[in-house]
Amino acid sequence: MRCPTKTGRSSDLALEYLSSRLEPETAQELERHCAECPACREYFAAQRAVWQILDEWEAPPTSPGFDRELQRRIAAEKARGKWWRTLWAPFTPRMLKPAAAFAGLAVIVAAAVLLRTPAPVSREAAQRGSEAVDVEQIEQVVEDLDMLYLLDPVVLDETVKPAGAAEPDKVGSLTNVRRRGKCA
Amino acid sequence: MAAVATLERDSELMLRVREGDGESFALLLERHRRPVIHFLYRMLQDQAVAEELAQEVFLRVYRARNSYEPTAKFTTWLFRIATHLALNWIRDNQKRLANHASLDEEPVDGPALQVADMRPNVEQELLRRARREEVKRAIARLPEKQRAAVLMHKYSEMEYSQIAAVLGCSESAVKSLLFRAYETLRKRLAHLAVSPTKGTRSRGGRSSEPGLEFR
Predict the structure, then answer these.
(1) Which residues in chain B (3-22) have CB-CB distances under 8 A to chain A?
(2) What DSSP designation does B114 have?
(3) What is the spatial distance between Cα A60 and Cα B47, in angstroms, rounded to a whole number?
(4) Most-buried pick from A55, A180, B33, B140 (CB within 10 A)?
(5) Hey, are the CB atoms on A57 and B42 less than 8 Å from each other?
């Protein structure tokens, strides 16, 4: 055997040897080597001494009531478990399936009802809406007339002008009034 | 081979516990109660706390019966729970432990010796107690992980792989922890080893084999 102290294997071998994990042949080799090598002999003897000292530490005996106390705690936990299960019974997985299906159906029905029913509109809001539409329509019509007039006043005079329609200067004056109002 | 058989038996018992078999749980308790309590006692050096935490260990085992899967060795799982609880307890009671260490110079276990009790072995008994107290102190002063590793290796006879699984580190890290721990203990207890007790026998765990004399 190569000297464990020189090869740096002494700690490893000591752990294996003292815990009786070393192969019998290797253990015998080590013992033979230690008989010849003072450094290894000293190291392994010191490790063995520590091992022996540790053997002297005995743990005290277990209390006689240990098992009884554990059984009591397990029984208490079982009882608590029963109470808990009773409380949560309606929410157990078996009950959760139909409950979830029912809730889903209710959501679908509610969504359908809400989508089919038009939102109630107040009278004032409706009136404001119609007024806004009217003003916009009038403005659009006036702008269209302006455009036509600017493009070709002659054509307008001859073809578009109906009987009793406003004179071009009047239309122009109307547009001007509107423009002035806008600027103001 | 025996280890495999034990693994099977423990796992089988646990699977039966899952099916509601109280007898199997009692058998597991009977088998592992002592090692778990002794490990916790040596880790915390307080028998009452050790028993309280051991109760919690077995309660957790019982609670986990429905989700138990025999993927690891039962003992490894058990000691992982025990170590976790012990380390948490140490962290939660650091201050108390510091005060306790400064005050507690008296032996905490075993009956107190009476002055009037002058039997011939009193001196021997006092010497034994003093040595034991020194061992306890030396182990208590080890860092938590080194302490746990030494206790599992020396007294619970666990393999490196098991200790590694319990502590959540590699086998080489476990070996390193053990080397450092035993080296520290050798230095701290060197004065006790000047005249080592001849023929000391193990009181649980691995013992040094008689007849392994190098000189």
Answers:
(1) none
(2) P
(3) 8
(4) A55
(5) yes
Give tens-digit pLDDT for B1-44. 455 555 558 888 998 898 888 889 999 999 999 999 999 999 99
Q: Is residue A97 part of a domain?
A: no
Residue with tokens 């938590």: B144
Query: Least CA distance to B138: which residue of chain A?
Result: A54
Domain of residue B25 covers 1-93
Contacts of A56 in chain B (CB under 8 A): 128, 131-132, 135, 197, 200, 203
Distance (Å, rounded) from C-alpha B39 to C-alpha B151? 7
User: What percent of chain A lies above the pLDDT cut of 90?
Assistant: 19
B42 at interface of A, judged by CB pairs closer than 8 A? yes
- pTM: predicted TM-score of the whole model, two decimal places: 0.65
Residue B4 sits in the same domain as residue B87: yes
**Least Cα separation, residue B146 to chain A (angstroms):** 14
**A43: contact with B, CB 8 A cutoff:** no
Task: For B212, list phi and psi in degrees, rounded to 5.
Answer: -90, 60
Asked if residue A151 belongs to a domain, the reply is yes
Check: complex ipTM more than 0.95: no
What is residue A116's predicted lDDT score, i.e. its pLDDT? 79
- Mean per-residue pLDDT over chain A, rounded: 76
Q: Does residue B134 lie within any of the structural domains?
A: yes
Kindly report the CATH number assigned to the domain that includes residue B175: 1.10.10.10
Domain hosting A162: range is 125-183
Query: Is residue B8 a contact partner of residue B56, using CB atoms and an 8 Å limit?
Result: no
Question: How many structural domains are present in chain A?
Answer: 2
Query: Mean pLDDT lowest for which of A154-163, B24-33, B56-65, B142-151?
Result: A154-163
Same domain, B89 and B127: no
User: In degrees rounded to 5, what are phi and psi of residue A46?
Assistant: -65, -40
- Lowest-pLDDT range of A25-29, A78-82, B23-27, B165-169: A78-82
CA atoms within 13 A on the CB side of A5: 11
Q: What's the domain count of chain B? A: 2
